[in-house]
Amino acid sequence: MLLAALLALAGCKIELYAGVSQKEGNEMLALLRSEGISADKQPDKEGKIKLLVEESDIAQAVDALKRKGYPRESFSTLKDVFPKDGLISSPVEERARLNYAKAQEISRTLSEIDGVLVARVHVVLPEERDGLGKKSSPASASVFIKHAADIQLDAYIPQIKQLVNNGIEGLNYDRISVVLVPSADVRQVPLAPHYETFFSIQVTEDSRGRLIGLFGVLITLLLVSNAAQFMWHRTKA
Prior knowledge:
Layout: H1 2-10, E1 14-20, H2 22-34, E2 39-43, E3 49-53, H3 58-67, H4 78-81, H5 91-111, E4 116-124, E5 140-147, H6 157-167, E6 176-182, E7 195-198, E8 201-204, H7 205-236
Parallel strand pairs: 5-6
Antiparallel strand pairs: 1-3, 2-3, 4-5, 7-8
Helix pairs in contact: 1-7, 5-6
């Protein structure tokens, strides 16, 4: 029992992210472990998972995941944009909401491309100048993609523009611009650990609290064990 308690405390980790999908959680877990970070996952009641790391590894873990675009952004769906609230919108509002939902879906699709960290699609719709249906300017769209520095996406620009052109009504291929920005893949340099002395033992500042907890558990278990032995001998006498 003593050994089990000590091992439980020694392996204690804290929550890094929660409510992550199984697929994304496994990808994040694999990435953290490839960076040499001790990480685990636990399921929750909603079928999602949470990631656990050592408290001393939080900064390094967040930095490693951020460089690879994790956790992924959640996008709105048609169901989110058009809730069943019974309210009636104008045709212009309906079209704007529909195009926004489509832009969100396209952003989600673009984010699935290998190496894409962040994807945004911004649509500008024309406004009617008068009741005759004249437009101030044609519709346009801008696509922003932040990608991993070691991935080249320039060859995919025509396909990206075609995807947006086919996905949103009233857009012209030539009115779609695509901006590709490589990520600055700068690794965080870990700071040298600060050591403290605890009962003539050199420990890091982050490990000091855990060591105190281990000693506390050890002393408590010894006291309980001695009390149990004393009571047992007393009943036998």
